[in-house]
Amino acid sequence: MATVQICEAEKVYIMHGVRDDLRIDGRACDDYRHMEVETDVVSNTDGSARVKMGDTDILVGIKAEMGRPRPLIPDEGYLEFFVDCSANATPEFEGRGGEELGSEISSTLYKMFQNRSSLDLRALCIVPREHCWVLYVDVLLLQCDGNLLDATSIAVKAALFSTRIPKVHVSEDDEGGKELEISDDPYDCMRLQVEDVPCIVTLSKIGHRHVVDATLQEAACSMASLIIAVTHKGNVTCVRKVGGGSLDPESIFEMTETGKRVGKALHAPLMKLLQEEEVLGKRRQKVGFLG
Amino acid sequence: MAGLELLSDQGYRLDGRKPSELRKVQARMGIFTRADGSAYIEQGNTKALAVVYGPHEVRGSRSKTLHDRAVINCQYSMATFSTAERKRRPHGDRKSSEMSLHLKQTFEAAILTQLYPRSQIDIYVKILQSDGGNYSACVNAATLAVIDAGIPIRDYVCACSAGFVEDTPLVDLCHAEETGSGTAVALALLPRGGQIALLQMDARLHQDHLDPVMEAAMTACRSLGQVLDGVVRQHLQEVSILTGE
Amino acid sequence: MLKSKTFLKKTRSGRVLKVVREHYLRDDIWCGSELCVECRQESPPPPVLQRDACRESSLCASRHYIIPDTNVVLHQIDILEDPLINNVIILQTVLQEVRHRSAPIYKRIKDVIHNASKHFYTFTNEHHRETFIEREQGESANDRNDRAIRTAARWYSEHLKKAPDGEELQVILLTDDKGNREKAEGCGVIAYKCEEYIKSLIGSPELMDRLALCTDDANEITSSKILFPEHLPLSRIQAGIKSGTFLQGVFRASRDNYLEATVFVQGDGDDGTEILIQGLQNLNRAVHQDLVAVELLPRNLWVTPSSVVLVDEGPKGDEDGDGDEEEQKMLKCDASESMLKPTGKIVGIIKRNWRPFCGMLSRSEIKEATRHLFTPADRRIPRIRIETRQASALMGQRIMVAIDGWPKSSRYPNGHFVRSLGSAGDKETETEVLLLEHDVPHQPFSQAVLSFLPKMPWAIAEEDMRNRVDLRKLCVCSVDPPGCTDIDDALHCRDLGNGNLEVGVHIADVSHFIRPGNTLDQEAASRGTTVYLCEKRIDMVPELLSSNLCSLRCNVDRLAFSCIWEMNHNAEIISTRFTKSVINSKASLTYAEAQLRIDDTNMNDDVTRSLRGLNALAKILKKRRIDKGALTLSSPEVRFHMDSETHDPIDLQAKELKETNSLVEEFMLLANISVAQKIYDEFSECALLRKHPAPPPSNYDILSKAAKAKGLVIRTDSAKALADSLDMAQVEGFSYFNTLLRILGTRCMMQAVYFCSGMDSDFHHYGLASPIYTHFTSPIRRYADIIVHRLLAVAIGADCTYSDLMDKHKQAALCNNLNYRHKMAQYAQRASVAFHTQLFFKSRGIQNEDGYILFVRKNAIIVLIPKFGLEGTVFFENKEKRGPRLLFDEEVPSLTVEGHTFNMFDRVKVTISLDASNIQHQKIRMALLEPVYRREHVPKRTTGGCAEVTREVKCINSS
């Protein structure tokens, strides 16, 4: 899925470069490509973000809807993920072509948030057992040039950061029936604490070394990859080995260490950028797709 | 609720436009590097993205191949978050399939397909945000993307919607107007020859009113044509500066 | 192409949907003032706000424009409608808020804005670059709107200052909100309280009376005693209705008893249930026609509707009425379990349906008082307390008053004076009152309407002849009541020579002159029908059309829509043809003249032969129709003979029907049925038809009982059975009995209504026993006929269609209006007859007449005087003194008074007089002369309580 085909010579060239810590686009093994993040790009969502990482381009929109809490966790809201691998990204995705990749990415996202430390889901509860907010996190793949998971996780975090959920006032009448009233004041809204939301770092094993943020060509040279979800404190919330090849425990340990280091470093500039955007507020010149 | 007053006595619409005024149009070509052609357009709050791949060999079954011209393949989809109420699927519903078909017909009329026999041109459009006139935004975006891909076309294909409220034709309807006015006409025009590439009307409209509504939509399409032309020229200028000429 | 100058977004969160709308700000919105030179664009509309906006005010000496805020528009619309108030700027913000809060006021303010002489300008401030503001953090929507109003007011005053000689022009903000006023003054806007400003106007003190009372003022004038339970807030009501604890319905006050009302709760489909409300507390300030929420009382508190007549006599000593309690006790009566009705109490008002009410002032006992009670003419409306300083001038006058509010501490609602209609008892005033009370539009036609009339002198032009056949050579004539100037229909009949006859019905081609959608058409559609009062006609279309160009007068060429049949001598239709035509009527006859011609064997001209042919066919048609089960019911109709000098009625006489009446009627029915079939075949979804539903069997109970008392059986299982058994019902030596039965039959019927064929499935016309029916033959006086003409014209390709004609929802809405107008016209007509009857008896003094008992009630009998077609009630009890011993048997029904039993259809002798003791409600008083029962019963005020005269002018068949 979303792969390129390269010849043996090219492969050898890439692998030799990685061995010497110099990749074809001039990066070192644990460097990310240039990244652009912008939030609040789709005005009719409750939160949205667009992330460009090289030629990989991802748009995330979040819509909050009212729903019923899950019976087993009655005092929490929940997130629903949907990844749309659209034909815009590559003609291969036309029709139902993108569904497999889409569900793979979304299942990774579910796993990443399947713990209490990532996001305080209790804040999404309105009336226990009756009403809660359901956040529909919809990821739209616009262009892919490798490393979709990292870009997606960053975009999701940015979008969650920008999400504004209207405040709900619960009033109770005599008969005990609950009346939900949604504030009509556009300023009266709830924000999410996204500090602890992890980002995914994908490490691709190329030859004897591993690289982060592999482009499509590099991915074609990699036998196997490890994905690690890391929080800003360096905590790992999820580790998965993906790809056809196998990895020895030694290199998994090494890759985890690199992942933690790189992942931890990823959060700080992201949060800084988001906060800067936040401060600008309405004065910020929105670029969107017109830039 | 009292319903919305679509046209005030002073002649202003809900968003402050006059009946014959378009929404703010902004567009950009060449936003993706991996595709052969791409464009993005904003018509007010309706935002569409179009990507063109091709002409290339016919994918999938060979039986689709046409010996005298290119196959136009279109897919229309909407981002799940594009509408006020979240959509469950981006494409594959009846409405999207219908839109895909309309786009295909529109661009078969515009692209010089006979230049590329036995090949295929893919046009993929995506609505990122929807506020009425989805079809028009898609057509306009696709036109720019086709031009960006360097595929020869007869003329710009410009599309615009129009409705009829209080005996006045309104052009470029926003979502509230589209749902409130009852009738919406979508029209795609090749402005130079005045040829209509597509005309679609779903609700009832008295025959007496069809002419003024179509006339208004065509005028709007022509103005849109000028905007698109400006976008293309500006893009060429930017590209030529970048390539250092 | 014009792009938005600035671009801002407004977010509205409704439920969970986030709706984003664009909001364009413009810099080409004009301020509308004559003074301004700055913001004029190419081809501007004429300025609305005048250079010399002059109103002398002690607060503001210079010229000024007024900007009212939303609440001022909502509450003081009467003031704004006054011609004295002009040069007003209505902000878009205000207009939108008004639109959300009150549809009737929104319509009124829009009417004012459209009136060019008022100089009201709507400023689109929300889209103006300099006056648009965004909602700030922590600001409520209302505060934001108030700020928007202030911003616009400030912009105006600064903007106008820049204009040449605009320095002294001021802009005044009117607001009753104290906080808003202070803030406005803080930012340099002149702001006054509405009351303060109106008071300051020099030379128009009468405006003061029209000021609506603000709620805080209202509290002062009543005692702090809480008289009524609090109304629930709308959210609770809605929740209650949803959960079923409350019911929603229309409040209908009782005409006879001010302490009783019913709430009509609409059920599924046509049926609904009525809930009884009794007592002031339970009525809880609801006013007739309000949409209310009711809570049902537990079953043990259910009561029966009392048959007592109670009139709110107003304050008795203590203003807050302890007397009410006593009267409330009178309501209680023992009743069997089966008589109990679901009873409830009003818990809240969903929507008030207040309009200005006609009535009279009851002056306060205190001489210098400025607060007075107003008694509406409609007895279902409570008395209203108003404040006026011109009470002495208004005494004896009919005035209009609007309700402002009804605080829970006040026995009566508070209101304000709107205008005076003239002195009571005056014929003009009373006519005005009855037109207003029945919502009959009767203003002279506006210039805009008249502008669509054809230019005089008018003649048939070449293009008028397109799609039209020339029938001028035919011997056409018209037959109408004497004095008729709006002749809708004309007829002809000739021998075709092949053994068949050609019969034509020619109807005035009104739709030729009234083109769809123009102002003239809209006005006619809104009026719906011409209203005939006793000596006044309120035209649906301007007189030039109704009495001249459309009227099929004799010896002039007139455009017509013809329906032509070929018939054999057995009145069987061979073929039907519809065409637009030109005719030239040879004679306009009255029914009597036509009858004379038919009967006079010496006359043998074309017209007479034609009439005889028609007459022969009509008899066959009628017979066939009756055989099919068409009903012939009767209702006493009267004519007044007017004094030519004073225009007072000098004689009163029941209408007499001639053969020629039924001649015309038969052919009109035939034409209507033929046209109905044609338009329904052609437009099955949007044909405008008329139906007459069969009455529910229980309606006939009274008829059956009455017949049974005389040993007769009336079968009511079908129209045919009913018609036959009515024909059989004869009593030896009592020739009027059959007529009485038929009068009674009329009362059992349902109302015939217009409907759109696409919205209904039952088309049957019960009274005419026809499967389909419409109105085609009177387009001059009924709007429904105009629509039918248009449909038919399209069907035969003589005219083109237009969109509203084919829209079944718009047509259904039109039908609703037409049905409402027809009903109101009928009521107005009855009221007019009642008023003239009073005038007649006023001049005649006391009369003794023979009559028949039409109905028997619990405490009264209703008597019909055939000579005058007059119906009145004779009461046997009254509330001050103990009445005679009464025994009512519902089964017969009969009423036994001190041993004498009154049955239906008994012959009685009564004395009739006019009771003018209450100038507002003058009454015809009836009292019994024969038979004599034991106690005192002479026509003094002792026995007869009050007697109300009602009269039926209803004629279900021909209408």
TrEMBL record, chain A:
Q: What is the lineage of its organism?
A: Eukaryota, Metazoa, Chordata, Craniata, Vertebrata
Residues in Exoribonuclease phosphorolytic domain copies = 32-166, 196-261
Per the UniProt record, the source organism is Scleropages formosus
The answer to whether keyword Nucleotide-binding applies is no
Query: Quaternary structure per UniProt?
Result: Component of the RNA exosome core complex (Exo-9), composed of EXOSC1, EXOSC2, EXOSC3, EXOSC4, EXOSC5, EXOSC6, EXOSC7, EXOSC8 and EXOSC9; within the complex interacts with EXOSC2 and EXOSC4. The catalytically inactive RNA exosome core complex (Exo-9) associates with the catalytic subunit EXOSC10/RRP6. Exo-9 may associate with DIS3 to form the nucleolar exosome complex, or DIS3L to form the cytoplasmic exosome complex. Exo-9 is formed by a hexameric base ring consisting of the heterodimers EXOSC4-EXOSC9, EXOSC5-EXOSC8 and EXOSC6-EXOSC7, and a cap ring consisting of EXOSC1, EXOSC2 and EXOSC3.
Quote the gene name from the UniProt entry: EXOSC7
**UniProt family annotation:** Belongs to the RNase PH family.
Keyword annotations: Acetylation, Cytoplasm, Exosome, Nucleus, RNA-binding, rRNA processing
| Any one GO BP annotation for this protein | nuclear polyadenylation-dependent rRNA catabolic process
Q: Please give the name of this protein.
A: Exosome component 7
Any GO MF annotation of the entry = mRNA 3'-UTR AU-rich region binding
UniProtKB/TrEMBL annotation, chain B:
Please state where this protein is localized. Answer: Cytoplasm; Nucleus, Nucleolus; Nucleus, Nucleoplasm
Q: What is its main location?
A: cytoplasm
Alphabetized CDD domains for the sequence: RNase_PH_RRP41
Source domain of life = Eukaryota
The family database entries (SUPFAM superfamilies) matched by this protein are listed as: Ribonuclease PH domain 2-like, Ribosomal protein S5 domain 2-like
Q: Name one GO biological process term.
A: nuclear mRNA surveillance
User: What is the name attached to this protein's record?
Assistant: Exosome complex component RRP41
Source species, please?
Answer: Scleropages formosus
**Could you tell me the gene encoding this protein?**
EXOSC4
From TrEMBL, chain C:
Record key words, sorted: Acetylation, Cytoplasm, Endonuclease, Exonuclease, Exosome, Hydrolase, Magnesium, Manganese, Nuclease, Nucleus, Phosphoprotein, RNA-binding, rRNA processing
Subcellular localization(s) per the UniProt record: Cytoplasm; Nucleus, Nucleolus; Nucleus, Nucleoplasm
What Gene Ontology cellular-component terms does the record carry?
cytoplasmic exosome (RNase complex); nuclear exosome (RNase complex); nucleolus; nucleoplasm
Question: InterPro entries in the record, alphabetically?
Answer: Dis3_CSD2, NA-bd_OB-fold, PIN-like_dom_sf, PIN_dom, RNase_II/R, RNase_II/R_CS, RNR_Ribonuclease, Rrp44_CSD1
Where in the numbering of this chain does the PIN domain appear?
64-182
Please name the Pfam families in this protein's record. OB_Dis3 (PF17849), PIN_4 (PF13638), RNB (PF00773), Rrp44_CSD1 (PF17216), Rrp44_S1 (PF17215)
Start and end residues of each RNB domain: 468-798
Which GO molecular-function terms appear in the entry?
3'-5'-RNA exonuclease activity; endonuclease activity; RNA binding
Cofactor(s), by name: Mg(2+); Mn(2+)
| PROSITE patterns xrefs | RIBONUCLEASE_II (PS01175)
Tell me yes or no: is Thylakoid among this UniProt entry's keywords. Answer: no
Specify the superkingdom. Answer: Eukaryota
What's one GO BP annotation on this UniProt entry?
A: CUT catabolic process
Q: Which PANTHER family match?
A: EXOSOME COMPLEX EXONUCLEASE RRP44, RIBONUCLEASE
Give the UniProt family note: Belongs to the RNR ribonuclease family.
Self-association and partners: Component of the RNA exosome complex; within the complex interacts with EXOSC4, EXOSC7 and EXOSC9 of the exosome core complex (Exo-9). The catalytically inactive RNA exosome core complex (Exo-9) associates with the catalytic subunit EXOSC10/RRP6. Exo-9 may associate with DIS3 to form the nucleolar exosome complex, or DIS3L to form the cytoplasmic exosome complex. Exo-9 is formed by a hexameric base ring consisting of the heterodimers EXOSC4-EXOSC9, EXOSC5-EXOSC8 and EXOSC6-EXOSC7, and a cap ring consisting of EXOSC1, EXOSC2 and EXOSC3; DIS3 associates with the base ring of Exo-9.
Q: What is this protein called?
A: Exosome complex exonuclease RRP44
